[in-house]
Fold this protein.
Amino acid sequence: MKRIAIACFYLSACITALGQEEAKDSFYVLSPVEVRAVRAAENAPFTKTNLSKKEISKLNLGQDLPFLLNQTPSVVVNSDAGNGVGYTGIRIRGTDATRINVTLNGIPYNDAESQGTFFVDLPDFASSVGSIQIQRGVGTSSNGAGAFGGSINFSTNEVNKESYAEINNSYGSFNAWKNTVKAGTGLLGDHFTADLRLSRISSDGFIDRAKSDLKSFYFSTAYLADKTSLRLNIFSGKEKTYQAWYGISEADLTAGRRTINYAGTEKPGDPYNNETDNYWQDHYQLFFDHQINKSLSFNTAFFLVKGKGYYEQYKADEAYAGYGLSLPGNSDFVRQLWLDNDFYGNVFSLQYRNAKTQFVLGGGYNRYVGNHFGELIWASNGLPTPTYRWYDLDALKTDFNIYLREQRSFATNWYYFYDLQYRHVKHDINGFRDNPTLIINNNYDFFNPKAGITYVKNGWRGYLSYSMANKEPNRDDFEAGIHQQPAREQLNDIELGIERTHKLTSWSATLYYMHYKDQLVLTGKINDVGAYTRTNIPKSYRMGIELQGAAGINSWINLSANLALSQNKVIDFNEYIDDYDQGGQKLNTYASTDIAFSPNIVGAAAINFIPCRHLELSLLSKYVGREYLDNTQNESRKLDPFYTQDLRIIYTLKPKFFKEINLTGQVYNLFNAKYEPNGYTYSYITGGETVTENYYFPMAGVNFMVGLNLKL
């Protein structure tokens, strides 16, 4: 009954109100040309949400980027440390980060091998972001890893015409600090501009020892002429986080030990104090834009991303032989697992635009060079050398894509759209840590067509689109073994949307159907080396409706809400469970079950009060329905639904000696809900019974952040 009541609240808010969301076409037109190449224009037949710089700044108190997107439709976020600082995750329509294409100024950001997105490597990047577009579904063609359920594009290249300087400091629960200094020259001599930001974020974390020490800088300079611009971006992030990625057992959760952390506890006595993850990432981006004539423009960008880091572990009572050493017996070890990689390439687009047509010919090429190696740096019973490297393996990946896109007004109020992309991917992997002799040389050729139609008139907008996406497996999938190599995945996506915009109110509804062929999921099946990797399943789908609404009730109250109702199913799922009694694995079959981590209901709402010119009060709420930890829809392996309420207060002053002073305070999880938005599970048979082990990642109860932003 509680779930139904909450659903009704969100549904009524969506129907009677409307969608803060869609910015006018200027959001697209005013974006830098390299960003327009990958973003959906206002009348493109795709489902999207745009966030402006002002909206981003209200949320930016130090939490990671996924938490800034938490109020957008169909989004669920999680945090290893429990307070949104450090390692975080995001899902859109149940789709995890490895299937969400992320670009920074049109340049791919997803990790080339895992295809995941590690925002912890870009601390406080939000302080340099001018706008964000989130596309749900396949969306427009993009660069880098194929969008397989969602896309997020961040833009930092907007021109600040006026000089500025800002000092931003935030402090909150769990000794969380954010210190940011940024400044810009504005437009000098009508041609030159430069922007600089320095940031530091630290936190003790809600989970025991889940500390974060994050540092970053951002520098951008540009030369702007009437028809030509040249811009250089250099930004970097450095993170050191104490590991908190094991979660906590169901037994500890039930007993109320919500902050326990198992990392480092293999060491006798106190936990190992340096069980940490350490990574440095430097980005170099060079953009050239040229306006050939009033309708035709060209842009190209070259980029280089250099990353290097390791995570350190204490391993107790392990055999020397397991590390390729001939020494007898066992020992305790401290080991570091390293990754040293370069990612570089080029993206380009030729764009034509007139009163009726938007045309883009674009694409890109990138190459990833990664070196995986492991080092033993200490052993209780000694090492033959001060540092011993027990594996050293290389990996290469190349990715090329080219696309042709057109949006045209073919009749009064009517637009058609097509987008044709060819993508070629090549993987060369020279062994894995647990299977060093397995060599992978795989090539993939993908054709990803998209087409749709849009109708726009008198504040009404309707669209229908079809999109196909194909996706290659990630590095871990290939380790299945030479005889168990995974197949590519394919997604067919249909989006049907309608929107109505008035002066003070608007609403929208989107119906979608996403059909997967050979989706890769965990089934429990063991591969050639005894590890659990994902297996292709023939058929699965997601279908649902997303409702949005926003309204200005009067001059001092406005509200917005969104609600996603969906069904997410695996057809004919096979589960494999280790049988410790008989040996081997037991097979269980299911006809139609929910896809893991795919809640059937996700809602968000905001009520904003502006009682006077300087003060804004906001109530921000979020509801996420029940999720399952695997694809069996077993009630003993689930995440409970949760509802959270935040309170935000913003007070703005404009004194004589400052452009602006902003005081922001936010109380998160106001009602102290105990909830877990992420987890994992595994099962086995012993003593004639099936035993299930569930692990969860709890979030903090009531906590706060306060910030002071001085604009000089």
About this structure: The mean pLDDT is 92. Helices lie at 2-16, 26-29, 33-36, 53-59, 65-68, 250-254, 475-478.
